[in-house]
Write a structure and sequence with these properties.
single chain, 243 residues, alpha+beta, six-stranded mixed beta sheet, 26% helix, elongated
């Protein structure tokens, strides 16, 4: 008997796979995407850190402002002297108002030798670099509110220290203490005072360290973040006395 031919189909079918690599264009696209993502990440992280430093500065100013107000209350509502009178025993002036607040126990320690790390402590704006005597970048208004304490004439002028708080017309809109610089071109160089007149702010003036804005604690104790223009327009440092 003649056999019937049969055709057997294979159970498994062979497949051929071709492995191909990235082309140069594809690699360049991937690299570009990674670079963009990295740049965005660094930008957001940088902004986050800057915001954190600005918030720390705000907290610092609330504490410094509260100490200044407490000192004035304990001294018949008279603001602390910008710098005390000459000590007759030494013939020299004691340090400025920051040292006085610390000495009298109103707020922490003050490093007069400038040995503390930059940006540390309640006295220092985190964006500030130290200058001589460790002025950490927070300044009061020199001239209209805070003054040197003197009992003898200097240059034909006798000053008897700072004002009393009741002479301020609008405490909620008057600079008590805030970000201050020693040079307008170096906002991160701190100073202990600003001039009351905007025309002199190229020397000692408000320091826009926080994304172009200045942290300011008003005499009523609240803190605002303002541009230099806003500070000038609102006259936070001049025309502040009761008429």
């Amino acid at each position: 008997m003649q056999g019937i031919p049969t055709t057997k189909k294979p159970i498994f079918k062979a497949h051929t796979t071709f492995l191909t690599g990235f082309t140069l264009v594809e690699l360049l696209v991937v690299v570009a995407i990674i670079a963009v993502l990295a740049a965005l990440t660094f930008t957001f992280v940088g902004r986050g850190l800057a915001s954190a430093r600005a918030a720390t500065c705000t907290s610092n100013l609330r504490q410094v402002g509260a100490a200044l107000i407490a000192h004035s209350i304990d001294n018949n509502n008279k603001f602390i002297a910008l710098q005390p009178d000459i000590n007759p025993e030494t013939g020299r002036r004691p340090p400025v108002w920051t040292w006085q607040l610390a000495r009298d126990g109103y707020l922490g320690s003050w490093d007069g030798k400038g040995s503390a790390p930059c940006g540390s402590g309640v006295w220092t704006c985190p964006e500030c670099e130290f200058v001589s005597h460790n002025y950490g970048g927070y300044g009061v208004v020199e001239g209209t509110i805070f003054a040197y304490e003197e009992t003898s004439p200097r240059g034909g002028v006798t000053e008897k220290g700072s004002l009393r708080e009741h002479r301020i017309e609008d405490p909620a809109n008057t600079w008590l203490v805030g970000d201050a610089h020693i040079n307008v071109n170096k906002p991160n160089k701190g100073w202990y005072a600003i001039w009351s007149q905007p025309s002199r702010w190229n020397g000692h003036g408000p320091a826009a360290r926080h994304n172009g804005k200045v942290n300011v604690c008003m005499i009523d104790g609240h803190v605002e973040r303002l541009t230099i223009k806003q500070i000038e327009e609102r006259k936070l440092t001049e025309d502040v006395l009761r008429k």
